[in-house]
Amino acid sequence: MIALLLLAGCVVGGADEPRPRDLASSWEVDRLRVLAIRAEPPEAAPGTEVALEALVAGPPGLALPSDRVWLACAEATPLGCPLDPELLTGEPTPDELVAAGLIGLEPRWAPTYTPSAELLSDADPRARENGVYVTAEVILLPEGGLEAGALDFNAVEVATKRIVVSETGAPNHNPPIRGWTVDGWPLPSGATALVTAGEAYELGIDVPEDAPEAYQSMDTDGLLRDYTEALYATWYATSGELLESWTLHPWHQATWIAPAVEGQEGVWWAVLRDRRGGLTWIEQPFRVVSSNRTG
């Protein structure tokens, strides 16, 4: 099982692992990371196809792996979704791969998942309305990792996401982000932000005021109660210093101090979540200059 081998790989050379105080901050993208997984739609009825996408990030110059294995399972173990590694090196048929829980094999097979009616066949009314969870998992493989005998489990990155499957009449949607702002000024789409070395900036994302959705959830007495989503954003950067790693709606700004090195390039990311499985993200490249700032 891939997850079991991954766990074994994590303890090899454990004495050489960095101490907690030596680890990077949660916002810092100084290595290969999966920052988020988006499902579209984030809440699906049985028979509805769900498309999946991973936000894979790394520092400038790092080649992001294109070989990605996607799994889905209704009953994940503490180690994730089970999968026989031999399936990746043999010649199984597509039907055999799907039956084993494989839902994507990038770059050749885009990840999608379609929940079956069996997931809710024995569910009570509350579970049908509020939903049950299916675990989606992505495994990033190093270059050549699919070749027999070439897979180094110490170089594998894994991330998971829960997909909600329900029969509600008002399923959840991913929240919207309209664009980036710096010090309150909108950035043109696709432009590189020029920042002055060592200066502080207020990074922001443009989120509509009505972005939080109103929804209903069934309580243990079978009554539908009204709620409103509580959106929050998590912030990431390849360099500089972020003073806030997360912010709550309606405050979607984070203070960032630019690196002191002129000419350095990097990326900001913001991931907006609704606490119900819905999320979206936006990224923005930047370059450090010594002259007056421009957007």
Major sheet: order of its strands? 2-8-7-4-5
Structural class: mainly beta
Structure summary, number of beta strands: 20
Q: Tell me the distance between the termini.
A: 49 Å
How many separate domains make up the residues?
2
Low-confidence stretches: 1-15
Number of helices: 4
Tell me the helix content.
under 10%
Radius of gyration: 21 Å
Shape: flat
Which secondary structure elements does this structure contain, and how are they paired or packed?
Blueprint: H1 2-11, E1 33-40, E2 43-44, E3 50-57, E4 68-73, H2 86-89, H3 94-99, E5 102-106, E6 112-113, H4 125-130, E7 132-140, E8 157-165, E9 179-182, E10 185-186, E11 193-196, E12 200-206, E13 214-218, E14 224-228, E15 232-237, E16 241-242, E17 246-248, E18 253-257, E19 265-273, E20 279-289
Structural write-up:
With 295 residues, the protein is mainly β. The protein has two domains: 164 residues, no CATH class; 111 residues, Sandwich (Immunoglobulin-like). The strands form five sheets. A five-stranded mixed beta sheet has the order 2-8-7-4-5. Strand 9 and strand 10 form a beta hairpin. The longest helix has 10 residues. The radius of gyration is 21 Å and the shape is flat. The protein starts with a helix and ends in a 6-residue tail after the last strand.
